[in-house]
Design a protein that fits this description.
- The complex is a heterodimer of chains A (322) and B (256).
- Chain A has 2 domains: 4-181, HUPs (Rossmann fold); 199-321, Rossmann fold (3-Layer(aba) Sandwich).
- Chain A is built from 8 helices and 17 strands.
- Chain A has helices at 19-33, 70-84, 95-107, 218-228, 236-240, 271-274, 294-297, 306-321, and strands at residues 4-8, 10-11, 14-15, 37-42, 56-60, 88-92, 112-122, 125-132, 137-143, 149-153, 170-173, 185-191, 204-208, 231-234, 261-265, 282-287, 300-303.
- In chain A, helix 2 (70-84) packs across helix 3 (95-107) and helix 4 runs parallel beside helix 8.
- Chain B is an alpha/beta fold.
- Chain B has a single domain (2-209), classed as HUPs (Rossmann fold, 3-Layer(aba) Sandwich), CATH 3.40.50.620.
- The longest helix of chain B is centred in the N-terminal third of the chain and has 17 residues, at 37-53.
- The chains are: A alpha/beta (322), B alpha/beta (256).
- Strand 17 of chain A pairs parallel with strand 13 (232-234) of chain B.
- The complex binds flavin-adenine dinucleotide and adenosine monophosphate (AMP).
- Adenosine monophosphate (AMP) binds next to helix 1, strand 4, helix 3, strand 6 and helix 4 of chain B.
């Protein structure tokens, strides 16, 4: 086919929220590189794709794919890719994709360019942008050798609202799989505990990161949250250390929030944190490092030592409130 | 039970990074280094498993000569021995080549379990473990928080998105990529540091492992990211900056 194949993700027939962004990426690259675009989803949910402008939707059904396993998905997609011979295979950078796409690429002697945040077409060749050093540095990557080329796109890199509607033919593709080839046994999904705080309901969130250094310092940022009349949240290391409960964690493995104002205190701005708060209306960052990636998304920032800045800010807020 | 843990040495988290003249990598001469964070958790999980199941913990690290410091620290914490694949850091910026090199270095080991961190702080591919599993022909599970061994089967707890988890059963031998944070890390004891000096570190020059390092992606250049938003940043004395910010929040953002 020598086109673009978007491999999307679903659970219970419902597409993953990042799947539509990957589909948008495929459409966009398809028009920029002048290549036909197809999409596939394993284990159901293919019908949801028929309403987009695509060359075709490939539905792979096999009862061994009803539950996700890295072995099952890799074996099935290897057959599909061999048969369709796409030049590019695009995935959303979800946890499931992290789990099987590097295996699939390796099985086909390729390297997946993971976590793509941008792209450009340079003289007809695709250049992908990904982050190094937790977002402090960007890298331009090109593919070498023969296709297929594999890439996964990070949340927010492409916009689902740019998807072009249409009507795509749905085609079935059958794969050879046997239960013995699937070595791991997935069990039930579960959540740890009921969430007592609903961060998504807060208008203002003040979030604390590893810059706070010790559990005993958390109260400094709590006071700032109080002065703003907001909720306290945190980056992952704070919750990992048990300094705040996990229900206050913002990011890809925590909550996704979009308050009127998000104040990040001593948070570097790694992509897994950003995806959980990038949609906030106003972002304020306090960090001693002027190069911290959080400043790339901040509307307002203070470069300085939080142990000086936060108390000063509380004082000014109280003054302003009279 | 033989457990292999892949540990990587990365620039310390607080490093001020500068791009080198060629625009291909960072200026790494004056940096300080530490163990990649999730790898420290992988090592901890391995040590805890050894305490329950007995056996041996072997660490493997691919990196330049300076990586021996991180290897020594792992030995001081309790790893039994180490394999140091000697490379220039940039030489192994292709994760498939690295996976092949590590698999080759581990050929003679026949481990029951291989653990890696889920992602490195510098290259951040989040792939090396999964690639290594495929090259070694092992089943794998990623983003592991904890594990329970029952005979020849591990039940592992995987982290999923949005606060969800899943248990997965996986037969040994297997490979796991470990997520940070699920357990407390131990410190090296004085005794451990002393003992580490006597432990075996096998050095294997990567070039001698003779794997075809088929470069299938090419790093053109690295650069500082540009701002995506126009931000107003204050960097004066704390009190002044605080006053200016509050004014903005009052009159522009109107949240106060
Ligand atoms: C699969 C996966 C899922 C993840 N999920 C999440 C998630 O849901 N949420 C999340 O947050 N992370 C998540 N992470 C981790 C993420 O990659 C980062 O490691 C984490 O967000 C870093 O937290 P931090 O910014 O608090 O710490 P660091 O990166 O250590 O940053 C600390 C910051 O504080 C600043 N600082 C230090 N001292 C001071 C001071 N005195 N005054 C002012 N500033 C100071 C430093 O300059 C630095 O920028 C995940 C990672 C992976 C791989
Ligand atoms: N040079 C290396 N030496 C040893 N282990 C490594 C090396 N590079 C990566 N790893 C392991 O692979 C994991 C994932 O790295 P990456 O794929 O680069 O994100 C790390 O957490 C390490 O456990």
């Amino acid at each position: 086919m020598s086109g673009i194949l978007a491999v999307l993700e679903q659970r219970g027939g419902v597409l993953h929220k990042m799947a539509l962004e990957a589909l948008a990426a495929a459409q966009q690259l398809g028009s920029e590189l002048d290549l036909p675009v197809c999409a596939t989803v394993l284990g159901g949910g293919g019908d949801a794709l028929a309403g987009y402008k695509l060359d075709k939707v490939l539905v792979v059904e096999n009862e061994l794919l009803n539950e996700y396993t890295p072995d099952g998905y890799t074996l099935a997609l290897k057959q599909l890719i061999a048969a369709q011979a796409p030049s590019f295979v695009l995935f959303p950078h979800t946890y499931q994709v992290r789990d099987f796409a590097p295996k699939l690429a390796t099985a086909m002697g390729r390297v997946l360019v993971s976590d793509v945040i941008g792209h450009r077409v340079d003289n007809g060749t695709l250049v992908l942008v990904r982050q190094l050093f937790q977002g402090k540095i960007n890298a331009d990557i090109r593919f070498e050798g023969e296709p297929p080329y594999f890439a996964s796109v990070q949340a927010g890199a492409f916009r689902a609202d740019k998807l072009v509607a249409g009507s795509a033919p749905v085609e079935k593709f059958s794969v050879e799989l046997s239960a013995a080839q699937i070595r791991t046994k997935p069990k039930e999904l579960f959540r740890e505990s009921q969430r007592a705080v609903d961060l998504t309901a807060a208008d203002i969130i003040v979030s604390v990161g590893r810059g706070i250094k010790e559990a005993d310092n958390i109260h400094i940022v709590q006071k700032l949250a109080d002065a703003f009349g907001g909720e306290l949240a945190a980056s992952r290391p704070i919750c990992d250390n048990g300094w705040l409960p996990m229900e206050r964690q913002v990011g890809s493995s925590g909550q996704t929030v979009a308050p009127k104002m998000y104040v990040a205190v001593g948070i570097s701005g790694a992509i897994q944190h950003l995806v959980g708060m990038k949609g906030s209306k106003t972002i304020v960052a306090i960090n001693k490092d002027p190069e911290a990636p959080i400043f790339e998304v901040a509307d307002y920032g203070i470069v300085g030592d939080l142990f000086e800045v936060v108390p000063a800010l509380i004082e000014e807020l109280n003054k302003a409130k009279g | 039970m033989k457990i292999v843990v892949a540990i990587k040495q990365v620039p310390s988290r607080d490093s001020q990074l500068k791009i080198n003249a060629a625009g291909k990598w960072i200026e790494d001469a004056d940096l300080s280094y530490e163990i990649n964070e999730p790898d420290a958790y992988a090592l901890e999980s391995a040590l805890q498993l050894r305490e329950k199941a007995s056996g041996e913990v072997v660490v493997i690290c691919a990196g330049p000569a300076g990586a021996s410091q991180t290897i020594r620290e792992a030995l001081a914490k309790g790893a039994d021995r180490a394999i140091h694949v000697e490379t220039d850091a940039f030489e192994v910026s292709d994760p498939l080549a690295l996976g092949r090199i590590m698999a080759k270095a581990l050929e003679a080991e026949q481990p029951d379990l291989v653990m890696t961190g889920l992602q490195s702080d510098d290259l951040g591919y989040g792939q090396t473990g999964v690639i290594l599993a495929e090259v070694m022909g092992l089943p794998h599970a990623t983003l592991i928080m904890s594990m329970e061994l029952d005979g020849n089967t591990l039940t592992v707890k995987r982290e999923l998105e949005d606060g969800w988890f899943q248990n997965v059963e996986i037969p040994l031998p297997a490979l796991l990529t470990i997520q940070s944070g699920a357990t407390k890390l131990r410190y090296a004891t004085l005794m451990g540091i002393k003992k580490a000096k006597t432990k075996e570190v096998k050095k294997l020059p990567a070039a001698e492992l003779a794997v075809s390092a088929a470069q299938v992606i090419h790093l053109d250049r690295i650069y500082m990211p540009g701002k995506t938003k126009k931000s107003v940043v204050f960097d004066g004395p704390a009190k002044e900056s605080a006053a200016k910010l509050v004014e903005k929040l009052r009159f522009e953002v109107r949240v106060i």
